[in-house]
């Protein structure tokens, strides 16, 4: 038996996040600034554009990284097989930029981590047995539990962006419905 690189998008995303973690927490901590989307946007600074996407690679600490990538590695290969590598890259990049922009518009805190991607994956996974003209009960239950939990957690002062979680889940739901219509 040999080890296969079965899910290139998910595995490359994971490797990049681990490399960014090592760079920003072990080798050169000031570099973490490159992997946070801040509430203000400087249209003249190229780094601001980079941050729209890069924040999904940065993580506050090791438990944050492991928590996010446990789900990504669990769900990602299934989703990459179902939707294809190219579609998964597009979904990840769109989720990153949409959560960045909306976070800047409506929140006063920076955004860091792949939690929006995790919730994108969770909602996409609830569509794995979707048929046109039907709404999977698993989707309804997961969406209800997920939104309810995030709304309740939104009242905590815990430095976690429930806003990004909800956005990731909504984006995953939109992709799930649209990509599974056929």
- Can you write the helix and strand succession as a string? HHHHHHH
Q: Could you list the spans in which at least 5 consecutive residues all have pLDDT below 50?
A: none
Proportion of helical residues: 55-70%
Shape: globular
End-to-end C-alpha gap = 36 Å
Compute the average pLDDT.
90
Oligomer: single chain
Domain count: 1
The CATH superfamily bears the name: Rhomboid-like
What CATH architecture do you see? Up-down Bundle
Strand content: under 5%
Largest sheet: none
- Text of the CATH class: Mainly Alpha
Radius of gyration: 16 Å
Structural key phrases:
Rhomboid-like fold; mainly alpha
Your description of this structure?
The protein has 182 residues and is mostly helical. It has one domain: Rhomboid-like (Rhomboid-like fold). Helices cover 65% and strands 0% of the residues. It contains 7 helices and no strands. The protein has helices at 8-27, 46-54, 62-83, 85-106, 115-125, 137-153, 162-179. Helix 3 packs parallel to helix 5, helix 4 runs antiparallel to helix 7 (162-179) and helix 5 (115-125) runs parallel beside helix 7 (162-179). The model has no long low-confidence stretch (mean pLDDT 90).
Q: In brief, what are we looking at here?
A:
It contains 7 helices and no strands.
Write the topology of this structure.
Layout: H1 8-27, H2 46-54, H3 62-83, H4 85-106, H5 115-125, H6 137-153, H7 162-179
Helix pairs in contact: 1-3, 2-4, 3-4, 3-5, 4-7, 5-7, 6-7
């Amino acid at each position: 038996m040999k080890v296969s690189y079965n899910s290139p998008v998910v595995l490359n995303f994971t490797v990049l996040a681990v490399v960014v973690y090592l760079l920003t927490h072990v080798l050169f901590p000031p570099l973490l600034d490159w992997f946070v989307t801040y509430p203000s946007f400087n249209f003249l600074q190229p780094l601001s554009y980079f941050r729209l996407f890069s924040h999904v690679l940065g993580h506050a600490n090791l438990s944050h990284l492991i928590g996010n990538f446990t789900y990504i590695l669990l769900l990602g290969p299934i989703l990459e097989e179902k939707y294809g590598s190219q579609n998964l890259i597009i979904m990840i990049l769109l989720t990153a930029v949409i959560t960045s922009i909306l976070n800047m518009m409506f929140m006063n805190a920076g955004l860091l981590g792949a939690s929006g991607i995790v919730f994108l994956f969770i909602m996409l996974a609830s569509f794995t047995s979707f048929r046109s003209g039907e709404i999977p009960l698993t989707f309804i239950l997961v969406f209800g539990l997920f939104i309810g939990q995030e709304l309740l957690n939104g009242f905590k002062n815990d430095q976690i962006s429930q806003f990004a979680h909800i956005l990731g889940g909504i984006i995953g739901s939109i992709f799930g419905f649209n990509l599974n219509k056929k």
